[in-house]
Design brief:
By secondary structure, the chain is of the alpha/beta class. It is built from 16 helices and 15 strands. The chain starts with 5 loop residues before the first strand and ends with a strand.
Length: about 500
């Protein structure tokens, strides 16, 4: 089928047909983690969201260069102009080198992403590895007259920029409104205007992470790294820039201003933003003190959790809502997601194991595949894909119970539907315990062999053997259900 992918462009505030700059090639940049703490559920939302986009673009045949940055310079997440270096603070408290802290949390982040089945990006550049490029970018902004040096630091001149270019166009903010609601901060009188943001900050004597520059020993501003690394690896104009909605202002707003000042034009064609995961209506995050790490979810080791939630349950929970809608955390919501995922996976298992093909189907299958493609083309509508998979699961369950029949062609269509949309595009692993397809096949074969032996024992009226196999499998966490077509199994 012909695909007409549309995505919501935050800058245009509407869905637009996706047309890459270079036919067949996509440049995609996503704001990655700040590595001074363990990843929490809020980090899972952008990671999974843009993993879906990455998977779907590749599925459609695009060659995708996916860049996801690592913020390891150590400045504050939302205010690069003041405050203590967070990486340095961690290093001091834990008696480690700053880059030791970075590597420790980056390793943890990668483990969490692998558990969530998030594909690695094409390039994962570190801010600390691109200091020279950031200094050169600042020089361009200075030469264009949109920045000034003050006390060894360099600041972007927001008022001067706004005189010729609209500052706030992405978030829809007005500079006069921003000025009226911005309070003066101690130690920031070296700025000409409270809205001016740091491109380079002179390091205080106790600041561990600093580099030489034409202006001072210091470190780059937080907003700068994405502008620099995005254009370095994707070109002065690239297709997609993604991140959480909380980054729209000021981070992405500042990125737009920087790129226009340095290059004379904007760098990004499509801005995409995922919405937040909340707890009791409040954003989940370190600064709010309400975050639960992904590892705590996986092991159930947080007081707010009633049970462990496996990585695929977390991933499915995220995908049940459209990426632009808010998701509110609760144990009830996660438990509902777990049951829903188990039902879909159980249906696929029955399709693989228990349905014998008939010469002709007794029901006419809707065009589930086309419906799922239409949902994905419509701004990655994963909830609609999941709803379609549930509908297909009911068809499978009816055929398993013997109330309907399916032809070999329809069984293959259903198998292809699940393989493509549940496993390849939604990225759900079929079996958390399986290390690879060979392991999974051997695992299923061993369980089916035991059930065949049990069936033979039942036929011979050897109830002791039959009950022993059922009871032992139940103890190991299997759920055994006897049907008129034979025994079915699933993992509880």
């Amino acid at each position: 089928m012909e695909h007409n992918l549309t995505i919501y462009n935050s800058l245009a505030r509407t869905k637009q047909p996706f047309k890459p700059i270079h036919p067949g090639h996509v440049g995609m940049y996503v704001c990655g983690p700040t590595v001074y703490g363990d990843a929490h559920l809020g980090h899972a939302r952008p990671a999974v969201t843009f993993d879906i986009l990455f998977r779907y673009l590749k599925h459609l045949g695009y060659k995708v260069r996916y860049v996801r940055n690592i913020t390891d310079v150590g400045h504050l997440e939302h205010d690069a102009d003041s405050g203590e270096d967070k990486v340095a603070k961690k290093a001091r408290l834990e008696q480690l080198e700053p880059m030791e802290v970075v590597q420790m949390y980056l390793n943890s982040y990668h483990r969490d992403m692998e558990a969530l089945n998030v594909l690695p990006p094409s390039i994962e550049p570190h801010a600390s590895g691109h200091i020279i490029e950031q200094i050169e970018y600042i020089k361009k902004i200075l030469d264009a007259g949109f920045a000034y040096e003050s006390c060894g630091s360099v600041y972007f001149d927001v008022r001067k920029y706004n005189a010729t270019h609209p500052y706030g166009k992405l978030s829809g903010r007005n500079i006069d409104d921003l000025l009226s609601t911005t309070r003066e901060l101690d130690g920031q009188d070296e700025k000409r205007c409270p809205l001016d943001f740091a491109l380079w900050k002179k390091a205080s004597p106790e600041h561990i992470m600093h580099w030489p520059s034409p202006w001072s020993e210091g470190f780059p501003g937080w907003h700068l790294e994405c502008s620099v690394m995005g254009t370095k690896y994707l070109g002065e104009t690239f297709d997609i820039h993604g991140g959480g909605m909380d980054l729209m202002f000021p981070h992405h707003e500042c990125e737009i201003a920087q790129s226009v000042a340095a290059q004379g034009h904007e760098a990004v064609r499509y801005w995409m933003h995922n919405n937040m995961i909340t707890i009791n209506g409040k954003k989940m995050g370190k600064s709010y003190g309400n975050f639960i790490t992904l590892e705590q979810f996986f092991y159930g080791s947080h007081p707010a959790l009633e049970q462990p939630y496996p990585p695929m349950v977390i991933r499915f929970f995220v995908l049940q809502a459209h990426y632009r809608s808010t998701v509110d955390f609760s144990n009830e919501a996660l438990q509902a997601a777990e049951k829903a995922l188990q039902k879909i996976l159980a249906a696929y298992q029955r399709l693989q194991q228990r349905i014998k093909p008939s010469e002709k189907s007794s029901v006419e299958l809707p065009d589930y595949e086309n419906r799922c493609y239409e949902a994905m083309d419509d701004d990655l509508n994963t909830p609609m894909v999941i709803a379609t998979l549930f509908e297909a699961s009911k068809v499978i369950n009816d055929a398993t119970d013997g109330s309907t029949t399916l032809s070999a062609d329809d069984i293959e269509r259903l198998r292809r539907l699940f393989d493509t949309f549940l496993f390849e595009l939604l990225g759900i692993r079929n079996n958390e315990a399986a290390e690879d397809p060979k392991t999974e096949k051997a695992f299923e074969g061993a369980v089916n062999l035991l059930l065949d032996i049990r069936s033979s024992a039942k036929a011979a009226k050897d109830w002791a053997t039959s009950d022993l196999i059922r009871d032992k499998l139940t103890e190991l966490g299997f759920e055994i259900k006897d049907t008129k077509n034979g025994a079915e199994w699933s993992i509880r």
